[in-house]
Amino acid sequence: MDKMQNLSKNQQIIFDLIDKSSEPMKAYSILHNVQKKGIKAPLQVYRALDKLVEIGKIHKIESRNAFIACHNSSCQVSKATAFSICEICEKVTEISSASLSKYLTNFKDKDGMKYSKYNLEFFGLCKKCR
Amino acid sequence: MDKMQNLSKNQQIIFDLIDKSSEPMKAYSILHNVQKKGIKAPLQVYRALDKLVEIGKIHKIESRNAFIACHNSSCQVSKATAFSICEICEKVTEISSASLSKYLTNFKDKDGMKYSKYNLEFFGLCKKCR
DNA sequence: TACATAGTGTTATATTATAACAATTTAAAT
DNA sequence: ATTTAAATTGTTATAATATAACACTATGTA
Q: Where in chain B is the domain with CATH 3.30.1490.190?
């Protein structure tokens, strides 16, 4: 229920690293950064990443194969995510818009079907790069 | 300007294959399927895929690393895409909703920024799998 | 013609991710 | 406290996805 639930050792190490990062981090970059802490193999990283995504502490930026910490206190799990991505500097920001999430959560396709989950990635130029 | 523009030999072979497929196709599955037509190396496939995505004849399903033909006559280029993905059978459908594309194209984040491009993936269960 | 652009073919390699198996830790339930 | 189940860890190997670099060929067009 609470995002402060205990993480395992590897999960905590990897979450801390991603959380401190100002940019999305890639799995093998994470690996290089945590080898000094005893995490030696890709699988150790991927397992922690899978779990952290599952519980909503981090999100995967699918178009970049990279991971960022969740900064949206209302998302316990990664089921309704939206990001803006700068095509020049690759800065990624999580979008927290109540109207957007409401619109997408309630969206029905032409068969009247609603979806339990979505991921939205916007692309453009960030303030600095414009 | 027109989607009927001429494709190169490899592009046409690969587009035809994807277009005939009822499911998203992965790059190496495409490769296996076109080896009899003389396309032998991954790079030949990826180059054709890159171009086909660029001109909007196909789209990449980012969460699945797979490609489907565009069936939305209004999208010359892959700049505003939305898909539904069944989490059981992996069926993928391109969503063509004028109101959705209007909403997302006009969406402004809290800094008032609009985006030139987006990709949205909805997840749930399709009719058959419910 | 000559020039630029796009496409092709090829080998090698980089990057991203999972399979399979064994051991250990943790939490909870008895 | 003890057993049990679930989660986590460690490890080696390998699968799957994607790009670098280089040489050559085709196509359009000035």
A: 80-124
